[in-house]
Amino acid sequence: MKPLLPARIALPLLLLALGGLTFVSLAVGDVRLGPGQIVDGLLGRDEFAATILWQIRLPRLCVALLVGSALAASGLVMQAYFRNSLASPDLLGVSSGGAAGAVIAIGAGWAATSFMLVPVTAVGGALCATGAVIVLARQGAGTERLLLAGIALNALLGAVTSYVLSQATLTYERNAQILFWLLGGLEDRTWEHVIMATPILLGAALLWPLGRPMDLLSLGWREAQSLGVDVVHLRRRLLSLATLMTALATAVAGTVGFVGLVVPHILRLLVGPEHRRLVPLALVGGATFVLACDLAGRAAGGLRLGIVTALVGGPFFLWLLRRQT
Amino acid sequence: MSALELREVCVPGRLAPVTLALGPGQMAGLVGPNGSGKSTLLQAACGLLPHTGEVRWLGQPLARLPVNERGRMTAWVPQEAHFEFGFSVRAVVAQGRYAHGDDGRGVEEALARFDLTSLADRPVNHLSGGERHRVLLARALATGAAIHLWDEPLAALDPRHALEVLMLGRTLTKAGSTLIFSLHDLRVAYCLDVVVVLHAGRLRAVGPPEEVLTPDLLLEVFGVQARHEPGLALFLP
Fold it and tell me: Of A190, A254, A261, B77, which has the fewest Cβ atoms less than 10 A away?
């Protein structure tokens, strides 16, 4: 299929959409703010608007943008890495690994000692899940094998989460925190969460120049190596970045599914499969998609982000499966 | 100096030690029954499989060559042509210039050489098996490499394109490149400078086809009765 959009106008269009959604995200809520109030609030001239923006809406917006970029870019990386367009961090169990790590940290009470322990354990959990996927994919990364491995890993990691939840010693507050991770959402996000997720920006910067070698890797590692790609180094770098970004996104927003599947697919339909174009587009497109889903959830009376992305992504995934067969 | 040299190259469990040298301008055919180790030998010679022994390209040990330099020196064509994503034919052929900084040189010529110009903007995963193989061969041509290693390049092609691939191989070797490719059609092997025969993971014979492909060897390796006929290099009754 021919790309629907020239690549050079796709990025400006996405940025325009992102800008528009950013404005809406800052403007709407329990208290509606006009453009003038937003400017005054951001500059600190209107104390009421400043409180709403700086304490509530901006942290939520920043977390949404970072989470969207991270999950979409991770999905893109995993699809190229496993040469499978159905691979994504949530379907392969990497997100569940991150969530299990975060849940253990909360359940054990480590989160109360330092907020940075949550992302650290989330990265640890995601790394374990990624390691398991690599071992399972070593025998072949066909769609069925990867998806079955994902189902098994999601079930296993879900059992870990359920075990922590079932501990009678847990306080109500910890249980509520754990439930937040299971549902995935952006409510009550603070600047601490933004700081936690900031390394995603570094991951994005490191991923940016890897688009071209990703094209070659998506043909198979032998072909890529024969054409002059340092495959060992590239694969290690890609998987580390995808795991880290997924884990950080999961640590600050819980399990948000399907972003890594839906966004790269839509972008491939729009501009074609070349990763040099797709990497920046996925970073911007992921942020746009998550922000749009968050706004849709807010408009629907407070639906959690994870529920909205699942409502969009679930049917999309089924459509993809049908299309593949 | 040999262009491609294998010194006691061994892939444990798949290929017994092989020592082999091909000079610049030589066109070699790798023959043997299914599972005899042809793809394994090509991949080991290309540095794509862990192996013991030493591989040298243009006199330089492969182990000491940077990956990017390897991409400039050799072109490997795999047996399978699987594309998950719909890159355009032109984009796939242009990947042959990756190690040259994506300079795009020779891409249009390579497309034209394989009758792919009219398909250049088509997604490669929408092509037939034979067309996809031609895309991979065009990419190999675009690399401008001195050493070519092709795994069954003729298997999926119709007679005209198979003949054109052989003629291209001859053009490349006349210009000084070295080509080794695996094949099953022994009649084609008679057009080549050197034939390498593998049997059960072992190197059985190397040399000019008329010396190597004797009826006795064909009976031993392939289990077929053959005799030479006047006017026909080889006759398989």
Answer: A190
